[in-house]
Design brief:
It is found in: Nucleus. By secondary structure, the protein is mainly alpha-helical. It contains eight helices and five strands. The radius of gyration is 23 Å and the shape is flat.
């Protein structure tokens, strides 16, 4: 059934068609692309990952039923291709996040904003890794040092002011596109804002669009 938006509503009609054609696999692909291109860890997509996991399980059961019923091999292979794509996106999304967690775990733990972006398993992973590393270092190194050095060494390792803790480089240029009809960005050292129409692609500093990624802007 066609939907009548009335005259002068082309933009609204385009948004409606985009929404109706959007699937969780497409949303997962966007989340994966944003996570892959962003220098810092982004907000974990709880509901999307949950739905994607359920859909993958259903697709696996469907492919298995098709194979057992003797369905046309070409049809089965097409379903298998969709399944493989969904599995790749989900696994790669989680793997990229895990790599960021491992690299920036000390920085993430002392940053409330970043820590709140983690899933519960990721938070548990960060705490366990740091605790294990500190215990291992204490048992193998600090305990061997003279008493007058141990407290100073331990304090420098876990200090929030430690310059050796890796931090995400937000002064990084990224390619991005507007996911909405219009976005205005205030650039650094520029009086004129950068105005982006829907799907326009620009190359800007990540810190300029940091708060808009996944909302008004997607990385490419």
């Amino acid at each position: 059934m066609a939907t009548d938006f009335g005259e002068g509503s082309t933009a609204e009609a385009n948004e409606y068609e985009t929404l109706m054609s959007t699937t969780d696999v497409q949303l997962l692909k966007t989340a994966w692309r944003n996570e892959k291109a962003a220098p810092e860890i982004l907000q974990f997509q709880v509901q999307l990952v949950k739905r994607a996991t359920e859909q993958i399980q259903l697709m696996e059961e469907t492919v298995e039923e098709f194979e057992e019923s003797g369905m046309d091999p070409l049809t089965v292979s097409l379903y298998q291709m969709d399944l493989d794509r969904a599995q790749f996106l989900l696994r790669s999304y989680l793997r990229i996040r895990l790599q960021k967690v491992e690299k920036y775990m000390f920085y993430i733990r002392k940053n409330d904003n970043l820590r709140n972006r983690l899933s519960e398993p990721e938070r548990v992973f960060v705490n366990r890794c740091i605790d294990d590393m500190e215990k291992h270092l204490g048992d193998t190194v600090l305990s061997k040092l003279p008493d007058n050095y141990q407290s100073a060494r331990r304090q420098s390792i876990i200090s929030e002011e430690d310059d050796m803790v890796p931090e995400p480089q937000l002064e990084t240029f990224v390619a991005c596109k507007s996911s909405n009809r219009f976005v205005s960005l205030r650039l650094v050292d520029s009086e004129r804002p950068l105005e982006m129409e829907r799907h326009d692609v620009s190359f800007v500093l990540y810190k300029v669009i940091e708060e808009k990624v996944g909302v008004d802007i997607d990385l490419v």
